[in-house]
Write a structure and sequence with these properties.
Radius of gyration: 26 Å
Number of strands: 3
Oligomer: single chain
Order of helices and strands: HHHHHHHHEEEHHHHHHH
Shape: elongated
Helix content: 55-70%
Largest sheet: 3 strands, antiparallel
Distance between the termini: 41 Å
Strand content: under 5%
Length: about 325
């Protein structure tokens, strides 16, 4: 990467220069391409438009009039200035800077394909790497409170069928580590209550058999025996295990609603970045297994990860937990 540092003066210079017509035409053509041929969402297009407008300002300040004249160094300087901020712009977060880099690189690939440039100077420019975010896992007491708030396994009365379904669904998510799409995709023949296993149909056609667990199996059997037949009678016949009130397959959105309502009743966070989600139960499943001594390779198989490196992020969570316990329990942990 270039040694030339970004400066606020350079950012101020950007605002005083108008991009050349050739640059504006190229950006318009690229955005039209994204709209018509790629079908990008309106919000994504708006973000790309802002990112590229700022990029054009950088090129104009540098005296660049067409994409064929752009150097890799100019792109690197622009991306560095995005992270540093200045000239009326706040520093961009890594994720936003990575998106801006993606917009710039896409523009140059488009220019190469359309004959607007003879090379792609962005080819070897690497976007900033977003920081690794540790999965959020609930403490076991919170998981139990969440599950119990969905409804009792012994539910009776008019609301019993949906209460039994809700409890079975959440117990199944935590008891198997299933993704929400896998849980709502389970059909009756995928569940073997005798052996206590379920077939989950994962990403990329990777299917796996997972143990259901005693608590989850009890809730699931209660639902299958006492609730699902009545729900199914209202529909047209579907093999899906989890049904809505009309007898049709429960959707991902429906499952989200069930979880969100249970979390609210349990007094857990339901808004913002720390909100409980179906993936929170999957994270909790993996973290609690590792806390209990499970081998990371076994957890990889249970989660259906293609690579163990994906699973290893959960080991970071457990190490953080170990540090917390050590810091509070060891008499000489704090100097």
């Amino acid at each position: 990467m270039t040694d030339q540092p970004p400066t606020a003066a350079a950012d101020r210079a950007d605002a005083g220069h108008q991009p050349a017509p050739a640059l504006r035409r190229a950006v318009r053509g690229y955005l039209d391409h994204l709209t018509v041929e790629r079908g990008l969402a309106a919000n994504t297009l708006a973000s790309y438009r802002r990112d590229l407008e700022r990029y054009l300002g950088s090129l104009a300040a540098a005296g660049v009039t067409d994409l064929a004249s752009v150097s890799a160094g100019e792109i690197e300087r622009h991306l560095a200035r995005l992270r540093a901020g200045g000239g009326g712009y706040p520093p961009l977060a890594v994720s936003s800077a990575a998106r801006a880099a993606s917009a710039v690189r896409g523009l140059h690939r488009f220019a190469l394909r359309e004959g607007l440039a003879g090379a792609d100077p962005s080819r070897d420019v690497r976007p900033p790497t977003p920081p690794r975010r540790l999965p959020r896992a609930l403490p076991l007491d919170d998981v139990v409170r969440l599950l119990e708030s969905a409804g009792p396994v012994e539910a009776t009365g008019d609301g019993a069928p949906l209460a039994l379904r809700d409890r079975a669904l959440l117990e199944f998510l935590y008891g198997t580590g299933a993704r929400i799409s896998e849980a709502v995709g389970v059909v009756v023949d995928d569940v073997d209550v005798e052996d206590g296993v379920a077939l989950l149909r994962g990403k990329g056609g990777r299917n796996r058999l997972v143990p259901i667990g005693g608590y989850a199996l009890r809730a699931l059997v209660a639902y299958l025996v006492r609730a699902r037949p009545g729900l199914a009678a209202a529909g047209r016949g579907t093999p899906a295990v989890f049904l809505n009130s009309r007898g049709g397959p429960l959707t991902r959105q429906g499952a989200w609603t069930i979880l969100r309502r249970a979390a609210a009743r349990a007094g857990l966070t339901v808004q913002g970045p720390q909100a409980v989600s179906p993936h929170t139960l999957r994270h909790s499943y993996a973290t609690h297994l590792l806390d209990g001594g499970a081998d990371v390779r076994v957890v990889q198989e249970l989660l259906g990860h293609a690579s163990v490196t994906t699973t290893q992020v959960y080991t970071l969570v457990t190490v953080e937990r170990l540090r917390e316990v050590y810091a509070t329990a060891h008499p000489r942990a704090r100097g």
